[in-house]
Amino acid sequence: ITKGINDLDKIILHQTQGSSVEVYLYGAHVTSWKKKGEELIFVSSKAIFSPPKPIRGGIPVIFPQFSNLGSLPSHGFARNRFWTIENNLSHVTNEVFVDLLLKPTEADLKIWPHRFEFRLRVTLKPGGDLMLTSCIRNTDAAGKPFTFTFAHHTYFSVSNISEVEVKGLENLDYLDNLKNRTRFTEHEDDITIESEFDRIYLSTPSKLAILDHKKRTFVVQKDGLPDAVVWNPWETKAKTIVDLGADEYKYMICLEAAAIGKPVTLNPGEEWKGRLQLSTRY
Ligand code: TA6
């Protein structure tokens, strides 16, 4: 554990061969993932590391509400709360990980009256793959179920958005956020981005990929997270986002592993698990 920007606490996990991951306790927010010393995650040069503002870039944890799909502030509150460290044991298998924990404060219970424990394990695998494992438990003794939507809002770093294709979404239905979430079917085999793009693809395969023709392929593997959001604000929208540089939309793409189409309901004592594994191919 060490001090990051604006004195916020962050944890750095290291592996051999120059792999590392940085995660801020503020938001349990991954802000860096490197392999062979090379940064794979986009964080805006204009990102404001100042609570309660969420950090622009990295891997925001979206819980308990994706976007404005309910009465909470957009994207819920997990991304702008301070998480605690539950343990940071190194495992015998050479994986390094840290377990972070979020529980609602009394103020949180006023806006979302449900007791829960959210454990996020951030694991850096021996080859440098990054794994995020989420366990959310309903700890409400009063016996009420609760329902949530969820996403790992990953901002991948790309050489240029014009070099990028997203694979694995062909023939799927999606909700277009730019058209009031109207439902369409994807007819393209490879998705390229040439203007503002904001879609929730429903019930996708568990393995997706981002091909960056000038750099690398990212492989995204997910369990318990049936949906995938693809987002790029493009030029005009980017100008309205104060913590994103005017040209930076060119160097990022969000491919988010999510549970949105079918919100998750947990009865008291029940637990939900989601898992995201990110790797690269060259
Ligand atoms: O996941 C896509 C999205 O919901 C977009 O609609 C866009 O607004 C983006 O997330 C960023 O949201 P934020 O609240 O971080 O500015």
From TrEMBL:
EC number: 5.1.3.15
Protein name (record): glucose-6-phosphate 1-epimerase
Organism: Deinandra increscens subsp. villosa
Family: Belongs to the glucose-6-phosphate 1-epimerase family.
GO CC terms of this entry: cytoplasm
Active-site residues, as the UniProt record annotates them: 153, 256
PANTHER family reported in the protein's UniProt record: APOSPORY-ASSOCIATED PROTEIN C-RELATED, GLUCOSE-6-PHOSPHATE 1-EPIMERASE
Catalytic reactions of this protein: alpha-D-glucose 6-phosphate = beta-D-glucose 6-phosphate
Keyword Translocase: no
The UniProt record lists the keyword Signal: yes
Entry's Gene Ontology BP terms: carbohydrate metabolic process
Source organism, top-level taxon: Eukaryota
Keywords: Isomerase, Signal
Family annotation (InterPro entries): Aldose_1/G6P_1-epimerase, G6P_1-epimerase, Gal_mutarotase_sf_dom, GH-type_carb-bd
One protein family per Pfam: Aldose_epim
Gene Ontology molecular functions: carbohydrate binding; glucose-6-phosphate 1-epimerase activity
